[in-house]
């Protein structure tokens, strides 16, 4: 995609500034419909436009690349004589390690920005969600920085995952106790 020229950038900036000035000129005592229309035009002008098909294609490609890397790791592990279960464990560990390293090098956020859900949904996205706050709050120390902030993003996922598994286990136990299972 070509970068906008300086003339285009300055004219777009001028246009946005002009729309904001026009919006501020509409007084609160003026007609509500005119004020709402000016506001809606301003919001429309600054809201980023997204192409759903392109975003879906990027997510598909990114998720596919992560899956191909995982399959490559599985194939290598199996060729080294590991069984299916142990190969899967090594695949998960290595994908998490790769994600954390890329997060530490500040590369994973760029991949996630480009690939969207394709980079955020797999196990690599969860590892990024745990590693990013730890890296961000590292300067505040081991306890109050990393220790307190490491699960800022992933914490709710872990909490509700454990809680829902506990509730489902309780339901299963009760169902089994009363002979439903």
TrEMBL record:
Keyword Calcium: no
UniProt entry keywords in alphabetical sequence: Membrane, Transmembrane, Transmembrane helix
Keyword Iron-sulfur: no
Pfam families cross-referenced by the UniProt entry: SpoVAC_SpoVAEB (PF03862)
InterPro entries: SpoVA (IPR005562)
Biased composition (Polar residues): 1-13
Protein's UniProt name: SpoVA/SpoVAEb family sporulation membrane protein
Membrane-spanning ranges: 59-77, 89-108, 114-135, 147-175
Region (Disordered): 1-25
